[in-house]
Specification:
This protein is mostly helical. 30% of the residues are buried. The protein contains ten helices and two strands, in the order αββααααααααα. A two-stranded antiparallel ribbon has the order 1-2.
Length: 208
């Protein structure tokens, strides 16, 4: 006898893996029984095509959005799609160009919180710190740069860039403790090729 969840699982399995046999039969092994589900090849093809068309439409909408209004609308509709990440970066850049640093920072924060990639998280977090600096929130920027620089999950080059900025700004506002801590951290990256230029820049601006 069929059970609804078995039928749904069968359809989803077919759509995802396209394992439908020539005779239209797929066999699902379960804990308590084997469920044979016969489906129309035509029906399954339709559902696969519909799914692909929907995914393509989402990708196209996010890729083609270029104005602030278009990006806001597209992200609002399809914000969970993986392609939304790039769209968010574009939106943040527009806010930054408009000198709307608070909105740009919020978008970068969302990217950092939702991305599955540490490099993307790192770049978004670094950009958020720059937005704090651009808006005159220097102490917040120092803390944000230091947080990026101290995160060992992030790429060394981005960490070093962040620590250099923490040193630079902390020295500028005479926060010697913060500057010293950031400088001590960046020195530990001195042997990393991707961090070398930032280490040298930090040495040039650091004042004890």
């Amino acid at each position: 006898p069929y059970k609804t969840n078995y039928l749904e699982n069968a359809i989803n399995t077919i759509i995802k893996s396209e394992l439908l046999k020539d005779d239209g039969i797929i066999v699902l092994e379960t804990d308590d029984e084997t469920c044979h589900v016969k489906l129309s090849i035509k029906n399954v093809d339709y559902r696969i095509n519909k799914k692909e068309k929907n995914e393509n439409a989402v990708r196209q909408t996010l890729a083609n959005a270029s104005t602030k209004a278009e990006l806001v609308e597209a992200i609002g509709k399809y914000g969970k799609a993986k392609e939304a990440e790039i769209a968010r970066f574009r939106l943040a850049e527009i806010y930054c160009t408009e000198k709307n640093y608070a909105e740009a920072a919020a978008v970068y924060r969302t990217i950092a919180q939702t991305s599955a990639l540490n490099e993307v998280k790192a770049r978004a977090s670094l950009n958020e710190a720059f937005m704090f600096e651009n808006s005159g929130k220097t102490e917040d920027a120092v803390k944000a740069f230091a947080a990026v620089g101290n995160n060992k999950l992030f790429p060394s080059g981005i960490r070093a860039e962040a620590l250099y900025s923490a040193v630079r700004l902390a020295c500028k506002i005479n926060k010697k403790d913060e500057a010293g801590k950031a400088f001590a951290q960046i020195k530990m990256l001195a042997n990393d090729e991707s961090a070398a230029q930032w280490v040298n820049l930090a040495k040039a601006v650091y004042v004890k």
